Every structure is written in C-alpha cells, then in structure tokens.
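Data card: per-record layout.
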Amino acid sequence: MTPFLFEFSFNLLMGDPTFENLGLQNVQARIRMVLAFMLASLLPWVDNKPGFYLVLGNSNVDEGLRGYLTKYDCSSADINPIGSISKQDLRIFLRWAATHLGFSSLAEIEAAPPTAELEPIRSNYSQLDEVDMEMTYDELSVYGRLRKIFRCGPVSMFKNLCFGWGSKLSPSEVADKVKYFFKYYSINRHKMTVITPSYHAESYSPEDNRFDLRQFLYNSRWPYQFRKIDQLVDELSVGKDAPASSNGVGVVAAGSADPKAGL
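The structure for this 263-residue chain is written out next.
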C-alpha cells in the first residue's frame, strides 16, 4: 500500500490533501480486514483442517469511545479480545507478561508509541495515535468513566474536570478538552452499532449492541451544553479565587479523575 499512498495524487485535483490522506488510510484499513477474512478462510484448507478460522479485532475500549477506528476494518472482526480493555490496563498487562511470563519482546511493544500504521513512515514523520486523536489515552479513560459510570454530559463533565484538573488547567482549557471530546464522541458514535463483540472487562465500554444503549445520533455542536460551558468559564474567570465547589464544580463525581473510580 505504501507506493499507492505516495503516487495517488487526488489531492492535486481537490485541493485538500487531508481528505485524500484520510480516505487512503481507510482504504488500506478495509483492505487489511478483507485480506484477514480471506486468510481465515484459506488457511484451514492449507493446513488440511475443517472449518474456518476466526478473525480477531484489535481496537481497545478507548479507541472505540473516541471513534478512532475505521468502520468495517477492526470494527468488523469476529471477536475482539481487547475490545473492552483500556489502553492503561493493556500496557500494565504487557509489562507484567514481559516480566512474569518471559515474553521479553512484549516490553518493547509496550514501550513503543501507539500507532495505527496506516501512513508511510518517513524520516521526519511517524503516525502516532495520540497526535491523531489530539488527546491522550489517559484522558480518554477519565472521559469514559465520567460519561458511562457517572452519566455525565458535557456540562457535568466540565464541572468535574475543573475539580479534578483545576490545579493543572484553566477552566477555558478544560472547556476546550471537553468540547473536543464530545464533538468526536458524537460524530463517531454510529461506529458503535457495528463494533466487534468483545469480552467486557471495563465498566465504560461504549459498545452499542449489548452494553451502552444510548442513542447513536447526536447534534455534534451541542449548542445548549457548549453555551452553558462558556457561561461557566466566564463565571469561573471572574471568581477565579473562589473554591471550585462554590461554583457547583465537582459536585457530581468528585473522585472521577481517579482511574480506578467506578470499578
């Protein structure tokens, strides 16, 4: 696929290489799944065995929450063994397995920056998940617990994160993060209707079929909620020396910034 990515010059006609880049990444991702199913059908025949092999998916719960996956790529496998496990827990397991099970190569995998591997690696560029998503996996774990376990919408999530992150971020910075998360959560929520079934190991799984039965169509602009957040930012900026709780911040789920909250 690498020569195809370099030689295809659709962006010269359309004038926006971003859309061409994303479109080609999705083509590559879907072809990858088609080939995986073909091999699952053919390999038993090669090995002189009856039946078919199952195709395993590989997106974790945080990627599903953010929608950082291609529809009908890793969302279309037969079963996903890590589909309801957070990135934090996966990394902890890899470190444990490297030490206690003797698979030393897993330590190298855990230490490598997460990447979708859908763009060519160049001397001055390597595709990274957290750069593409513009949020970290640690942040996604917090968002997921607030959204699912504590049932937070944009406004209550903003209040709780002002309480939890107030020592590191200003109210306007927290507001930007919350708005950005909910924008992509709502845009990509439809992907959860076709997500690969997975063993449930995390209490904030966004899977639509069995675990999270919220609607899958949202107004991604969240006009009332985002307007309310802007109003709270203005109020907090005026009274920035007052304790957060006096503004109603941190009331719903004060301990929700703890990664273990709700478990």
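Known properties of this structure: Confidence is low (pLDDT under 50) at residues 1-15, 241-257, 259-263. The radius of gyration is 21 Å.

See the next section for split statistics.
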